[in-house]
Amino acid sequence: MTRHGKNCTAGAVYTYHEKKKDTAASGYGTQNIRLSRDAVKDFDCCCLSLQPCHDPVVTPDGYLYEREAILEYILHQKKEIARQMKVMGMGARAGGFDPEHTEPL
Question: Residue 23 in contact with residue 30, Cβ under 8 Å?
């Protein structure tokens, strides 16, 4: 093999094919995907309920939530944790958490 044949990949040129292969592998760069209207949330809609906000709350990162949706989500998670603790046999008061009582244990 000649000397030029051994250095065939040592060029400083980043070809179109290499760029396409790298962007497809990494996930970064321009994506050639067309999103439907259902995939894009309106700017004034809650991130949890996807409905327009009447009592909006904005996080420091810029996410918009409905106050009522946040409270419903927190209550749902609290009840779900209590249910999981009962299933695991830990009991509600064993871990110092009881969703029915608000005072400290």
Answer: yes
